[in-house]
Amino acid sequence: MAELLKGKPVADALNEKTKAKVAELNKKGIHPTLAILRVGEREDDIAYERGASKRCEQVGVEVKKVALPADVKEEDFFATLEELNEDENVHGILMFQPLPKHINGEMARKMLKPEKDVDGGTDGSLAGVFTNTKLGFAPCTAQAAMEILKYYNVELSGKRAVIIGRSLIVGRPVAMMLMHENSTITVCHTRTKDVASVSREADIVITASGQMERYGKDFFKPGQTVIDVGISWNDEKQKLCGDVLFDEVEPIVSAITPVPGGVGAVTTSVLISHVVEAAAAK
After folding, report:
1. What burial letters (b/e) apply to 97-112, b meaning 16+ CB within 10 Å?
2. What is the CATH number of domain 140-264?
3. What is the mean pLDDT of residues 137-159?
4. Pick the CATH number of 29-113 from 3.40.50.300, 3.30.470.30, 3.60.15.10, 3.40.50.10860
């Protein structure tokens, strides 16, 4: 039976550190503030906004909500973003994407200052991940996976890690972050031949392809650590599922994250910690 790498203890530990840092900053007259920039009324955006706001309240981070109508003029959107960029009392900006089609999303990503990009989605932030420098912040989900590995003392140096998925949100940044920890990396994608044989060679497998329950027992071997980043809603079983066929894989491997209750439970805590880091850096 595999060790369950639950996200809640990781999130709780991270929250406690963040709360302590907020208290220190407050003594200096600094009040870490997150601006949430949302366009329209997408249910998933509103749900994430609600979760982020609740987590901010728990650790003492202030929230400034900026909700624009779905048909906001492009020039008005960019004026709002620039205002948040220049507001010294705003330390981090969470800009929900994708933006409506009439707003140039690429231009928005380039305009958002990396030092305020607490979600890690700008080109500047990604450059910081690839160069292992303090430019911007790592994408929150990718860092959440790393936080879990480190919390549970999973050995990374010298280990072989296989990442299934090459998105800019998880796959590629987490590959770079593992490389900075001296892991040997293989990234699999839709054109990779025989992914199962590749993943079986790894010590650590991170699945981030967004394919519900795609990876069963044939992809794994005893002794592996599995981080399942995927999350999908199974209409048939009325439950949330990951990329990994959990019931089939859990008896084989040494450690695995559950879905739900794994990486997703840590992501928001990472986001809020970035806001506090940004405030401390000013």
Report:
1. eebbeebeeeebbeeb
2. 3.40.50.720
3. 98
4. 3.40.50.10860
Burial of 123 by CB count in 10 Å (0-12 exposed, 13-18 middle, 19+ buried)? middle
The pairing of strands 160-164 and 204-207 is parallel
Residue ranges of E strands in the chain: 3-4, 33-39, 62-68, 92-95, 160-164, 184-188, 204-207, 225-228, 232-234, 239-241, 255-256
Query: Looking at 136-254, which runs of residues are DSSP E strands?
Result: 160-164, 184-188, 204-207, 225-228, 232-234, 239-241
The residue assigned the tokens 């992914």 is 195
Alpha-helix residue ranges (DSSP H) falling in 87-190: 105-111, 123-131, 140-151, 171-180
Tokens of 23: 């208290």
Q: Are strands 62-68 and 204-207 parallel, antiparallel or unpaired?
A: unpaired
- Residue-wise pLDDT for 79-132, tens only, equals 999 999 999 999 999 999 999 999 999 999 999 999 999 999 998 899 999 999
